[in-house]
Amino acid sequence: MSTIKIRSLVHFDTEQLMLYVIGLPCLFWFILFQYKPMSGLVIAFQNYSLFKGISRSPWCGLRNFTDFLNSPYFYTTFKNTFVLNLWGLLIGFPFAIIFALFLNEIKNRVFKTVIQTVSFLPYFIAVVVCCGILINMLSPSTGIVNSIRSGLGKEKIFFLSKPEWFVPIYTGLNIWKTTGFNAVIYLAALSGIDPSMYDAARIDGANKFHQLWNITIPSILPTIVVTLVLKIGSMLNIGFETILLLYQPATYSTADVISTYVYRLGMVENNFGLATAVGLFNAIIGFLLVYSSNKLSRKLTQTSLW
To answer: Fewer CB within 10 Å, N or C, the chain?
Structure first.
């Protein structure tokens, strides 16, 4: 009896060892590119000099943080980051859920596969390509949008130079690019719903709306809550590459966000200490948002990320 137990234990340990070996590259990647760079956060508390390095640069305490909070860019970048993410949360987040619910109702398998594939493909298109397509479409001289406006007798608009147009343009581009990918998460949750629940509801006389409200949405609610918590936690993180490719000085009032401000501080002005302080401030606010939204979700819906 003891021999059987020992053999099973050895077999179990070997299987677990193989799983750990498979996971080692991912672990090394996280250590090398995610945790090791955290040691550079001390730059946020230094008057950092590229030539002196971290060890010899003088310490300045919280001066970089106070400089950012007193900077005229603080309110603008913080507001723009929050507004762009709020549009994505209020429009883009439910759009993916609604799209997944519509896909789930399509009975023709071929048609469903085609629609899902077409909606999923933009996620794999490089950001540079997406922005290039958008810039060409909105061009005031050769863009299809302004050509249609001109054909209708309306004045051409240089959309990307108008601050009031940047938020809807950025939000629309993100919805087009990410909806198909985000919908896959909800489709996976929908596929796990027991079909017998719908059969019982139909026997009881429930129509499609009642089935949706009482079976479908409650069944995928844990998935919605988890993705919502993660989305709220990244309210101050935004598509830096997209904004950098689309914005210009004329649209700084609505397009300049914390990440682009950090880029200009670090790469253009070489103010690495202040840039690191702004990035650390952004991370701390993000952590507080994740923690508070998770706690609120656990209290209201009994579902949480941890």
So the answer is: N
Q: Could you give the CA distance from residue 281 to residue 258 in angstroms, rounded to a whole number?
A: 10
Block means of pLDDT (10 residues each) for the chain, length 306 residues?
49 70 87 85 87 87 88 87 89 90 86 88 90 90 87 87 91 90 87 84 83 85 82 76 87 87 83 86 83 77 68
Amino acid at the residue 11: H
DSSP 45: G
Contact predicate 99/185, CB 8 Å: no
Stated pTM of the model: 0.80
Chain-wide mean pLDDT for the chain?
84
Is 163 in contact with 254 (CB distance < 8 Å)? yes
Burial of 299 (0-12, 13-18, 19+ CB in 10 A): exposed
Alpha helices, H only, the chain: 2-30, 53-56, 63-69, 72-87, 93-105, 109-120, 127-137, 144-151, 163-191, 195-203, 208-211, 217-233, 240-246, 252-255, 258-263, 272-301
In 3D space, the residue among 180, 210, 187 whose CA is nearest the CA of residue 95 turns out to be: 180
CA distance 258 to 277: 11
Start-to-end C-alpha separation, the chain: 40
Distance CA 204, CA 207 (A): 9
Q: What is the CATH number of domain 63-125+167-303?
A: 1.10.3720.10
Asked if 191 contacts 252 with a C-beta cutoff of 8 angstroms, the reply is no
Residues 222-244 as b or e (16 or more Cβ within 10 Å = b): bbbbbbbbebbbebbbbbeebbb
